[in-house]
Known about the structure:
The complex is a heterodimer.
Chain A: H1 9-12, E1 21-24, H2 34-43, E2 48-51, H3 63-67, E3 71-76, H4 83-91, E4 95-98, H5 101-113, E5 117-120, E6 134-137, E7 140-146, E8 150-161, E9 166-167, H6 176-181, E10 183-194, E11 213-216
Parallel strand pairs in A: 1-2, 1-8, 2-3, 3-4, 8-10, 10-11
Antiparallel strand pairs in A: 5-7, 6-7, 8-9
Chain B: H1 5-13, E1 20-24, H2 28-31, E2 42-46, E3 50-53, E4 76-82, H3 85-93, E5 99-102, E6 106-108, E7 113-114, E8 117-118, E9 122-123, H4 129-135, E10 139-142, E11 154-155, E12 170-172, E13 176-180, E14 186-191, H5 197-203, E15 208-209
Parallel strand pairs in B: 1-2, 1-5, 5-10, 6-11, 10-12, 14-15
Antiparallel strand pairs in B: 2-3, 3-4, 6-7, 8-9, 12-13, 13-14
Amino acid sequence: MINKQVANAKEALNGLTDGMTLMLGGFGLCGIPENAIAEMVAMDVKKITCISNNAGVDDFGLGLLLQKNQIRKMVSSYVGENDEFERQMLSGELEVDLIPQGSLAERCRAGGAGIPAFFTPAGYGTEVAEGKEVREFNGKPHILEKALHADFAVVKAWKGDTEGNLVYKATARNFNPMMAMAGKITVAEVEELVPAGTLDPNEIHTPGIFVQRIFQGNTFEKRIENRTTRKKK
Amino acid sequence: MALDKNGIAQRIAQELENNTYVNLGIGIPTLVANHIPKNINVEFQSENGVLGMGPFPFEGEEDADMINAGKQTITTMPGAVLFDSATSFSMIRGNHIQLSVLGAMEVAENGDIANWKIPGKMVKGMGGAMDLVASADNIIVAMMHTNKKGESKLLANCSLPLTGVKCVKKVVTNLAVLDILDEGGFRLVERAPGVSVEDIKKATAGKLLIEGEIPEMSIN
């Protein structure tokens, strides 16, 4: 057994420095590594590139790093929930690379899977295709998309063991498994950290081989972005 | 009378086929789920990682870990499954989803769609829309016929940055149902209750094809 456990977010992010490229799991505020993000704010790491499907909201998630101008560049698919983001982008302070969500997921997966690039139909004939190789397969044009890699991939899981094996809950899985594969150093923060051998090997989503450091988060606010309910009849 | 957003959703729901997988975009498309015809069984996919999406949870039963692509709290139906984003887009890109319904800012008479960016003003991003429109065989756009300034959203060519090319098959608006022909042009299929062909002509900037009597939609 290889023990990947570290004490806290601070230890997990040791070696994270200005200018690095990070992947951060999550969809909206669901399944984001809240404890690691709080630590990045405390570390005051600057000029980072964040690969993340979304950019949080003004006062939570990656919005906390945007507020302090810690992010130089965002690579995302949808950023519509963050006013500060839109302001920084339209003013030119923040560099933004918007890519189709499926291409983003697959580019992360490819990065972790040793596939340097792939062809996809998504984005053909749009701004996304500018400067990219186009090739026809089965009579349909596709564009070449390259794999993404990160100095640190920071993911959030429901349960994990000291070996780094991870289990996600519900739709908090989203980008976390692909990003976990694509980090030079992958940090996993979990709600519950258990000894290796405790999780059922049949039910592990991310094999621990992809994870270098794992810690149990102190607190999880798990903020709901858009609370929708119905009344009991 | 032109339809409201629920009316548009209700008309689109009539297009649902039995035992199919359907992806609904954010906005009007989400409302389609409230109008599924009786005897029609469909499973809704949400691209953040759920197939078999159910209604909103009862008050007090919301789970922050269980949301749809609109970040709304949801529930799942019996037989539902949860998965990661790469698997989700394998379903979409691999053409395992039979119908995709999404909103748009502009649709062109050749089936081009624009719905993610207004240069210099609004940039929300394309989310999963580019993957969806590039691969789904059947794409229905749900939108208002004109924008807030009263300008047509059904055009000869899109003026905004494109989301996809030659992909939209059908448009359902507050005024009409229109098919997009392979050779180009909006073929008028139905009118909203009380809306005249003249009204639709006035509100459509792209090529409009009108053949014979145009029936009125049947909306409850």
